[in-house]
Q: What sequence folds into this?
C-alpha cells in the first residue's frame, strides 16, 4: 500500500515555471510519476513540455485540481509567497501539500498551521526533500516522487524511512537498497521548527501500513518530536524500528543549517534523544553508516523478514 | 540574528515596554555626551557584546565585571573608559572573548523584586508562548531544573493574538496587583506585539523588575530574530553588528554556504545540514575532532566548493579535510571537478579524504583518481571518517 502517495497519485507542481520547480518536475516525469498539472499564476493556458510530456499550466491550484484530478502538490514557490501557496492547496481540498521551499518565515508557518487546523489537507514540510513511493521498474522507476529526492536510489519494498534531513534520508535509503532491502515509502518531514507532519504522524502511518515491515526514523537536535514518536513506538508499534539522531557534536545555541536544529536545553540534545530511543526499544545506529544495519539487527531480533 | 541590549531596549520603547533611562556610546569621545543625557546619581555601565554572563565576566587585562553599578556619573565615566575597547571574556564568549565596542549607560533602578519574562516559539504547539517566573535575575535553566513550579507558560493562539485574560493570568501568576499589575500588563502586551511585528525568535527579559514606586521595567533585554524573515524586516537588518560575528561565517553566508566554526582540527565539507551534522558526529565517534560545520547545500557549484575550501583552510587549527557528498541529484563528477579545481587554486598541504556517493559517482571517482593529487578516497562515511582521523593523528 505504501503511505501518503502511490504510483497512481496524480500530482501538480506549484512553481513549475521556475528553474528549481521545472528541473524537479522533469526528474519526476522521468521517474514515471504522474505529473498532471503545473500552477503558476499568470501563466495559465501554457504548457510545460518535457520529451513526450505536455503538462498543462493553470493559474490556480483549484483550477488545476478540478481539470486534472491532481490530489497532491509539490510546492517550489519562493519563501515570501510559500505560505500562500500552501493555503491555496488547503482551500482546493487536496489530500497532500508538500512544501519543498526552504527559508519560510516561522511566523508565516505558525499562521499557516493554525489556519490548516481541521483541514482535510495534510502538509508535509516545509524545507523538506519530499516523499517517494518507489515503483516496480528499473531503479524503482514508475514510482511517485514528489520533491527533490533522487528516485533512482530507491527499490520497491517494505521498509519505511522518515527523516527531517534530505541527505540523511538518501543515505539511509541507499544503504537499504545496496543491501537488497526495498522501501515502502521514504518521507522527509523537513528541518524547520514548525512543520505540517511530525515524526509521530509518519510513524503511525507506517505502523498501520500492512506493506511496511520495519521503520528507520532519523532525527536531529532541537525540539521534542523524535521523543514523542519514540514513546508512541514503545507503547503501540509492533514493528522493528531503527533510529539515528544527528548533532551529538553540535554546540548549544547554534543553528546547525536547519532552522530547527538548535539545542535549546537539556531535553533536546542528541544524547537525551538517543537515551529515550534506547529506553523505547529502538535500535540506535552508532553512526550514520550503521542505519540500515541497525534495522537489520532490530528485525532479526524480532524475527521479522524485511524483504 | 542577534542584537545588542541597547538596540533591543530602543525597540522596547517603540512598543511601549518600559525600560530604565539609557544612552549608548561607541567611542571614548562619546562617553561624556552619552552620560550627559542621564540624570545625576547611581548609574549602570554595561558592556555591549552578543553574549550572556557579562556581569560575571572578566576582561583580558584583568579588570573584573562587564556590567557595573556606579554611585555617580563621574565614576561611571571612569569605569566605562576601562571597558570600552577592552576584550571581555564570559562563560558564553569562549576564551578569546569579545572586544567591547559599545558602552550602554542606564540609570540604576531601585529594585523591589526581580522576575523573568520571555516570548518565544513553543515548538510542540507550533504557537508563540509567553514564559514567566517569579524567580528573576538568575539563570532560567537553573530555575527550570530546581523549582520548575515557579515557571509558568501561556500559549498564544496566533489567530487571535495574546488575549487580555492571558495577560491578567500572567500578571497574577507573578503575584502582581494594583498599579504593578496594570504596568506589567502594558509591558507584556508590548513585548508580544514586538515579538509578532518584528519576526523575533525570542525576546527574553531577565530580570524584569518592580520598583518601590510601582513601576515595572525591563532591566535587561536579549532579543534574536528569525533569519528567514529578515527579507521583510529592513529596520532589524540595519541593527546587525558584523563585529559580533565570525568573519569566516560572514564570508560563508556571502557564498550561500552555512558554516559554523568549532574548536577541532578536521574540517568538513558536506552537502545537506543533517549529513553535515552527522559527519561531525562520525569524526568524533572515531576519535577525531571536527573543526567546523559546513553545508554547501543541495546544488553546490564549483565556485561554492572553491569558496568553501578557502574558508576551511582559513582556520589555522585545521590539520585535515573530510569531504562527504551524497550527490543524489547533483552530478558527483561536477563536484569532483570542483574539488580538483579548488585544490589546484588554493593549494593543499593537508590530508584530504573524499567520500562521494550518488549520481555519476564512477566518473567522479575517476576524476579524483586521475587528478594527480593526493586525494584519499573513502568507500562509506565510516570508512572515510576512519581514514581522515588516522591521517590527522599522524
A:
Amino acid at each position: 500500500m505504501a503511505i501518503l502517495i502511490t504510483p497512481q497519485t496524480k500530482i501538480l507542481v506549484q512553481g513549475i515555471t521556475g528553474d528549481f520547480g521545472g528541473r524537479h518536475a522533469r526528474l519526476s516525469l522521468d521517474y514515471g510519476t504522474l505529473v498532471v498539472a503545473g500552477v503558476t499564476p499568470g501563466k495559465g493556458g501554457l504548457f510545460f513540455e518535457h520529451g513526450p510530456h505536455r503538462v498543462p499550466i493553470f493559474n490556480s491550484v483549484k483550477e488545476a485540481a478540478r481539470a486534472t484530478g491532481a490530489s497532491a502538490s509539490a510546492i517550489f514557490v519562493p519563501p515570501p509567497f510559500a505560505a500562500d501557496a500552501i493555503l491555496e492547496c488547503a482551500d482546493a481540498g487536496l489530500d497532500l501539500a508538500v512544501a519543498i521551499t526552504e527559508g519560510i518565515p516561522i511566523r508565516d508557518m505558525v499562521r499557516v498551521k493554525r489556519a490548516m487546523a481541521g483541514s482535510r489537507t495534510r502538509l508535509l514540510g516545509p524545507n523538506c526533500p519530499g516523499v517517494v513511493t518507489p515503483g516496480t521498474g528499473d531503479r524503482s522507476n514508475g514510482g511517485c516522487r514528489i520533491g527533490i529526492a533522487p528516485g533512482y536510489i530507491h527499490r520497491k519494498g517494505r521498509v519505511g524511512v522518515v527523516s527531517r534531513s534530505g541527505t540523511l534520508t538518501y543515505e539511509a535509503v541507499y544503504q537499504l537498497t545496496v543491501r537488497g532491502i526495498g522501501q515502502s515509502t521514504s518521507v522527509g518531514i523537513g528541518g524547520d521548527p514548525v512543520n505540517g507532519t511530525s515524526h509521530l504522524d509518519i510513524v503511525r502511518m507506517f505502523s498501520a501500513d500492512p506493506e511496511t515491515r520495519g521503520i528507520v526514523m532519523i532525527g536531529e537536535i532541537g525540539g521534542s518530536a523524535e521523543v514523542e514518536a519514540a514513546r508512541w513506538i514503545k507503547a503501540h508499534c509492533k514493528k522493528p524500528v531503527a533510529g539515528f539522531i544527528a548533532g551529538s557534536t553540535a554546540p548549544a545555541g547554534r543553528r546547525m543549517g536547519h532552522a530547527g536544529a538548535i539545542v535549546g536545553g537539556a531535553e533536546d540534545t542528541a544524547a537525551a534523544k538517543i537515551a529515550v530511543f534506547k529506553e523505547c526499544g529502538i535500535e540506535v545506529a552508532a553512526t550514520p553508516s550503521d542505519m540500515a544495519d541497525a534495522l537489520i539487527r532490530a528485525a532479526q531480533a524480532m524475527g521479522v523478514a524485511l524483504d | 540574528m542577534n542584537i545588542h541590549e541597547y538596540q533591543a531596549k530602543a525597540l522596547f520603547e517603540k512598543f511601549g515596554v518600559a525600560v530604565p533611562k539609557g544612552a549608548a556610546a561607541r567611542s571614548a569621545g562619546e562617553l561624556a555626551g552619552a552620560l550627559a543625557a542621564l540624570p545625576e546619581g547611581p548609574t549602570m555601565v554595561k558592556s555591549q557584546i552578543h553574549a550572556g554572563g557579562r556581569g560575571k565576566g572578566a576582561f583580558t587585562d584583568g579588570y573584573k565585571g562587564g556590567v557595573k553599578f556606579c554611585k555617580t556619573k563621574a565614576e561611571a565615566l571612569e569605569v566605562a573608559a576601562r571597558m570600552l575597547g577592552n576584550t571581555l571574556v564570559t562563560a558564553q564568549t569562549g576564551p578569546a572573548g569579545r572586544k567591547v565596542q559599545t558602552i550602554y549607560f542606564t540609570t540604576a533602578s531601585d529594585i523591589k523584586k526581580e522576575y523573568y519574562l520571555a516570548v518565544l516559539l513553543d515548538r510542540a504547539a507550533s504557537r508563540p508562548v509567553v514564559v514567566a517566573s517569579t524567580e528573576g535575575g538568575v539563570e532560567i535553566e537553573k530555575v527550570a531544573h530546581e523549582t520548575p513550579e515557579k515557571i509558568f507558560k501561556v500559549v498564544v493562539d496566533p489567530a487571535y493574538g495574546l488575549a487580555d485574560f492571558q495577560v491578567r493570568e500572567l500578571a497574577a501568576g507573578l503575584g502582581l496587583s494594583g498599579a504593578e499589575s496594570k504596568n506589567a500588563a502594558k509591558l507584556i502586551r508590548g513585548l508580544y506585539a514586538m515579538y509578532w511585528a518584528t519576526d523575533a525568535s525570542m525576546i527574553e527579559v531577565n530580570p524584569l523588575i518592580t520598583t518601590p514606586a510601582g513601576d515595572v521595567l525591563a532591566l535587561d533585554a536579549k532579543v534574536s530574530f528569525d533569519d528567514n524573515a529578515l527579507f521583510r524586516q529592513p529596520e532589524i537588518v540595519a541593527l546587525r553588528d558584523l563585529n559580533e560575528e565570525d568573519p569566516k561565517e560572514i564570508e560563508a553566508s556571502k557564498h550561500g554556504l552555512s558554516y559554523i566554526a568549532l574548536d577541532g582540527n578536521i574540517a568538513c565539507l558536506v552537502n545537506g545540514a543533517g549529513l553535515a551534522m552527522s559527519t561531525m558526529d562520525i569524526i568524533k565517534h572515531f576519535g577525531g575532532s571536527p573543526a567546523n560545520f559546513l553545508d554547501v547545500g543541495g546544488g553546490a557549484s564549483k565556485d561554492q566548493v572553491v569558496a568553501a575550501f578557502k574558508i576551511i583552510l582559513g582556520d589555522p587549527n585545521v590539520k585535515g579535510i573530510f569531504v562527504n557528498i551524497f550527490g543524489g541529484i547533483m552530478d558527483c563528477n561536477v563536484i569532483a571537478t570542483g574539488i580538483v579545481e579548488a585544490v589546484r587554486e588554493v593549494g593543499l598541504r593537508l590530508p584530504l579524504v573524499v567520500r562521494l556517493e550518488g549520481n555519476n559517482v564512477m566518473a567522479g571517482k575517476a576524476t579524483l583518481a586521475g587528478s594527480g593529487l593526493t586525494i584519499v578516497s573513502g568507500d562509506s562515511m565510516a570508512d572515510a571518517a576512519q581514514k581522515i582521523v588516522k591521517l590527522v593523528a599522524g
